[in-house]
Amino acid sequence: MNKLIIAAAGAGKTTYLVTNALSQTESVLITTYTEANETEIRKKFIEINGFIPKNITIQTWFSTLIQHGVKPYQDYLTDKKINGMILVNRQSTQYVPATNVDKYFFNSEYKIFSDKLSKFVCLCNQKSNYAVINRISRIYKNIFIDEVQDLAGYDLEIIKLLFESSSDIILVGDPRQVTYLTHNERKFSKYKDGKIKEFIEEECKNFEIEVDEVSLNCSYRNNELICTFSSKLFPNYDTPSSNQDDDVEHKGLFFIKNEDIDIYLEKYKPLQLRDSRRKKVTNSFSIMNFGESKGLGFDRILIYPTKPILDWVLTGKTLNPTSCSKLYVAITRAKYSVGIIYDYPENLIIEGIENWTYND
Question: Is 319 in a helix, a strand, or coil?
Answer without folding.
Answer: coil
